Amino acid sequence: MSKNIYCVFLRKQAEGQDFQSYPGELGKHIFNNISKEAWAKWQQKQTMLINENKLNLISNTDRNFLEKEMIKFLFKS
């Protein structure tokens, strides 16, 4: 069962994620502050970015780009 959290993306109480979806300290921050709904919105945006920019997720440069976009999308909207 998921807990309710205050989602900083949605700016309201919402259902939290069931598990940490991203590794490390950033992943913990996302788990504690980003709801399931907001994470799903990010996944849609992420797919769009990967396809439009033809990102290669094996490339560190492309993964770093995607991580920066994720932070911008989730925490600076």
Descriptive report:
The chain is mainly α and 77 residues long. The protein has a single domain (4-75), classed as Fe(II) trafficking protein YggX (YggX-like, Orthogonal Bundle), CATH 1.10.3880.10. 56% of the residues lie in helices and 10% in strands. The chain contains three helices and two strands. The mean pLDDT is 96. One of its GO terms (cellular component) is cytosol.
Present the secondary structure layout.
Layout: E1 4-7, E2 12-15, H1 24-33, H2 36-52, H3 60-75
Antiparallel strand pairs: 1-2
Helix pairs in contact: 2-3
Question: Outline of this structure?
Answer:
By secondary structure, the protein is mainly α.
Whole-number mean pLDDT: 96
Q: Spatial order of the strands in the main sheet? A: 1-2
How many alpha or pi helices?
3
Please tell me how large the radius of gyration is.
13 Å
Order of helices and strands: EEHHH
The CATH superfamily bears the name Fe(II) trafficking protein YggX
CATH third-level topology: YggX-like
Proportion of residues in extended strands: 5-15%
